[in-house]
Amino acid sequence: MVSVRPAQVSDLPAISALDARLTGASKPDYWRDRLALGLHFLVAETDKGAFAGFIAGEVRAWEFGQPPAGWVFAIQIDPKLRLKGAGSALFEALVARFKAEGVTRVRTLVDRKDHLILSFFRAHGMVAGPSLQLDKELS
Amino acid sequence: MKLQTATRLGLYATLELARDPAQTLSSADLAERFGVSTHHLAKVLRTLAAAGLVHAERGASGGYRFTGNRRRVTLMDIVALFEPAPGNRAKEPGEDTEIGSALQRVLTEIDEIAEATLRSVSLETMLKQPM
């Protein structure tokens, strides 16, 4: 069983280490600032108290011209503790917080080559949204 | 997006069989359900069997049974059995010109989004959605 609770400053080393391990980029200052901003930042723990992963998001209004929606900025689960429901528990807890804030839509951005995370969000009923993300290399 | 008939039949048959992995359906049962030719579907089912997604049961109550993993198999796994892989596509006339290669970049962008979408939808996810 997995439990979900709000992240605390004492969770930052574990959050930062897991993210660095999974993305290959260490950014402890970024995670410290995110937590300080007061967005929804939740962690999952196993019944033995082991850190299993985290999720972060917030409600943003009129971002890119879109009406208020809950944005999921990050979700990371320890690979050793996957398929035990930690990701789903975190996602559902975050969605419940978004609903409590009165929004009726959840949104995220995903690397289209990251099939694992794309499948995860699909399995939770998410589909392509109204926006297309565009990029340009600046030389 | 336009899928070849065999691809569409492959998706129909796999999803119908995966709906209940205990059920065995003949190609005639499946063809009737989707209003398609038994002959065409039989060929598609042989491809699915060779890929290990379905198993052919012999005997009087014979037919096909789903043997894949609903959570692991994605729509792309089935599409890839019937559609040519993007890398194996034959070059179209004019593709080497400046306009041809600019057009190809746009078409490749569309293909990449389509592939990411098909690869992100597992059979389990499809069968969970209201149909």
How does this structure look, described?
The complex is a heterodimer of chains A (139) and B (131). Chain A is of the alpha+beta class and 139 residues long. Chain A has a single domain, classed as Gcn5-related N-acetyltransferase (GNAT) (Aminopeptidase), CATH 3.40.630. Chain A is built from four helices and five strands, in the order βααβββαβα. Chain A has a five-stranded mixed beta sheet. In chain A, α1 (12-23) packs across α2 (28-36). The model of chain A has no long low-confidence stretch (mean pLDDT 94). Chain B is mostly helical and 131 residues long. Helix content of chain B is 56%, strand content 6%. Chain B has helices at residues 5-19, 27-34, 38-50, 75-82, 98-120, 123-128; strands spanning 54-57, 63-66. In chain B, strands 1-2 form a two-stranded antiparallel ribbon. In chain B, β1 and β2 form a beta hairpin. The longest helix of chain B has 23 residues, at 98-120. Chain B is elongated. The model of chain B has no long low-confidence stretch (mean pLDDT 91). At the A-B interface, α4 of A face α5 and α6 of B.
Radius of gyration of chain B: 17 Å
For the record, the count of structural domains of chain A works out to: 1
Total count of domains of chain B: 1
What is the CATH fold-level name of chain B? Arc Repressor Mutant, subunit A
Order of helices and strands of chain A: EHHEEEHEH
Can you list the strand order of the major beta sheet of chain B?
1-2
What is the H level of CATH, i.e. the homologous superfamily of chain A? Gcn5-related N-acetyltransferase (GNAT)
The CA-CA distance between the termini of chain B, in Å, is 20 Å
Which overall shape of chain B is indicated by the principal axes computed on the Cα atoms? elongated
Can you tell me the CATH architecture of chain A? 3-Layer(aba) Sandwich
* Run of helices and strands of chain B: HHHEEHHH
Percent in helix of chain B: 55-70%
The greatest interface between two protein chains, and residues involved on each side, is: A-B, 10 and 13 residues
